[in-house]
Design goal:
By secondary structure, this protein is mainly alpha-helical. It has eight helices and three strands.
């Protein structure tokens, strides 16, 4: 009978190589690349570029960029779309408001509510984000090959589509 050890070799350790962990690492690498590209983009306002370069802007701040409607959103809508609590999203909105990315105004359809909307600076940030995502995706295709990138993309779309309520439950 073979003796088993508590220390499996790293190459065979399922805890390190399972799909969820690999997806998490890939997402962090992708987001870090996008933030790096934005930090070095001449079209990003200098103050925001400096924040990104000093790692003051995180993937969490990108939730606002990803989920804020072009015509504005209520905090509750934004939090739900990002899969965050209203309190956590409120903190991010406050930071982004201080940086000049967004503004809060009264909601014309409900005087009790406020709408969060991109400022002109925020729209410039959004355009830079779009370009950075496109470049990071292009780099991914170059690194793994077009065929693999297509299969990964289709697989992730199918897998994520199987759980449509994931982002709506903070």
């Amino acid at each position: 009978m073979a003796k088993t050890t508590a220390h499996a070799s790293p190459a065979h350790d399922w805890r390190q190589l399972h799909l969820g962990r690999l997806l998490g690492h890939a997402m962090r690498r992708f987001d870090a690349r996008v933030l790096h590209l934005m930090a070095h983009n001449d079209e990003v306002p200098l103050a925001l570029s400096n924040l990104a370069a000093r790692a003051q802007v995180s993937a969490a701040h990108i939730h606002i960029t990803r989920h804020l409607g072009l015509h504005g959103s209520r905090l509750s809508e934004l939090a739900q779309a990002a899969g965050m609590t209203k309190q956590a999203m409120g903190d991010l909105v406050t930071q982004c408001e201080a940086w000049g990315l967004v503004t809060r105004a009264m909601d014309p359809s409900d005087a009790r509510a406020r709408r969060i909307a991109f400022t002109e600076t925020g729209l410039a940030w959004l355009r830079a984000f779009e370009r950075a995502v496109a470049q990071a995706e292009s780099e991914f295709r170059q690194e793994v090959g077009v065929e693999v990138a297509t299969v990964v993309s289709l697989g992730l779309e199918a897998y994520a589509g199987a759980y449509p309520d994931l982002e709506s439950n903070p």
